[in-house]
Amino acid sequence: GKVLVTGANGYVAVWVVKSYLEKGFSVRGTVRSESKGKYLRQLFQSYGDKFELVVVDDITREGAFDEAVKGVDAIAHTASPFHNRADDPNDVIVPAVHGTLSVLNSALKHGSSVKRVVITASCASILEYGPEPRVFSEKDWNERAIREVNEKGRAAANGDKYCASKTLAERAAWDFYNKHKSEVQWDVSVLNPPYVFGPVLHEVDKPENLNESSRLWWDAVVAGKLSNEELATNGSAWVDVRDLAAAHVLATTTPEAGGERVIISPGAFKYQDFVNIAHRLYPKLPAGNTSYDPAKAVHMIQYDTSKERKLFGIKYHTAEEMTRDTLEDFIKRGWIS
Ligand code: NDP
C-alpha cells in the first residue's frame, strides 16, 4: 500500500515515514517547499521509488491536496503548527483547522483509493487544567481552551491557543467525516499523543531550533534551564516518538481503529524523572533537584489508556530507553561534548 504523509519534514512525521517504509508501505510525503525536502530525499534514499515527495505550499487552500491524494491507500495528516509564538490565535487555528479540512476535502473528491485517514491529533484536545488531579479518557474534550481563546483572543495564554487549534481541528475532522461518511469508502482514525520526546531524525542545525517538545526536554535535561521547583512539579504525560510513529502504522492497519480517537502514552512524568536518568548515564549533565521524590509527585494530568491497549497493545519504550537514545543522538550531533 501507499500512504500520503503531510508535513513529512516534521519531528514526528519523519519517524512516521520511516515506520511506514520499514513496514513495507510506499510513502508520498508533502513539504511546503522543495528545499525542505532535500534532506528527506537523502535520508530515505535507500528506499528508491518507494519514497516520493510533493510540494504543497499552502495546506489551507481548498484543493491543496487534490493531486497528492490520488492513488494512495491511506493518509496520515501530521502537518499542523506546534509552537508557542502565536500572537493572533488564528496564526495556529487557521492552518490546523483548514489544513485538516483541505486534506479531507481532497480525499472526498479525489481519494477514490483511500481506505483510512489517520490524523495526528493531540492530548491538547482532551486535557483541561484544573485545580485537582484528573484522569482523562477519549470521552473528554478540551472546551476550556476554546473558551479562553474566544474570550481573550490575543491575550489568551499561548498554550491555550495551541490547545484550541488542536481541539478545533480534531472536531472539524469528526464533523466532516460524520457529514460525508455515506459518500466515502474511507474512515478516520485519530491519535491523541501527549508530549512527544525521543531521538531526532528530522533536519535540525542546533538545539535552539529543535521542535517545541524536544526543545522543552533539552532545556530541562541538558541545558539545566528549569529551577529545582519546576523540575519536580512541571510535567504531564509523554510518549516516545518511535512508539507514536508505530501507532500511525497500527492505526492504518487495524480495522477497529476506524471511527476512534486513541490516546497514545505510557504514562506521566516530571522533568526531574528524565534528569535523574540522564545524570546517572552522564554525570556531567545537571543533577537537578536531588531531593525530588517520584513517589510524592502529584500528576495533575493522567490518561486512561485502556482503549490503546485493547486496539494496539503497543510495547512502549521506557523513560530510561528514551533518555538514553535521545542523549546518544544529541552526542552524535555534537550538541553535547
Ligand atoms: P514540528 O514542528 O516538528 O512539525 C510540524 C509540521 O507541520 C512540519 O512539517 C511543518 O512544516 C508543518 N506545519 C506547521 N505549520 C504549518 C502551516 N502553517 N502550514 C503548513 N504546514 C505547517 O512538530 P511535531 O512533529 O512535534 O508535530 C507534528 C504533529 O504532531 C502536529 O500535528 C502536532 O500538533 C502533533 N503533536 C505533537 C506533539 C509533540 O509533543 N511534539 C504532541 C501532540 C501532538 P514546516 O517545517 O514547513 O513549518
Computed CA radius of gyration, to the nearest angstrom: 19 Å
What is the β-strand count? 12
CATH superfamily: NAD(P)-binding Rossmann-like Domain
Separation of termini? 43 Å
Second CATH tier, the architecture: 3-Layer(aba) Sandwich
| CATH fold descriptor | Rossmann fold
Strand content: 5-15%
Q: Which CATH class?
A: Alpha Beta
Helix count from the secondary structure assignment: 11
- Give the distinct bound molecules: NADPH dihydro-nicotinamide-adenine-dinucleotide phosphate
Please tell me what the overall shape is: globular
Mind summarizing the main beta sheet? 7 strands, parallel
Low-confidence stretches: none
Secondary-structure element pattern, one letter each: EHEHEEHEEHHEEHHEHEEHEHH
Average pLDDT, rounded to a whole number, is 97
Q: What structural category characterises the helix and strand content?
A: alpha/beta
Q: Which percent bin holds the helix content?
A: 25-40%
Strand order of the largest sheet: 3-2-1-4-5-7-10
Total domain modules = 1
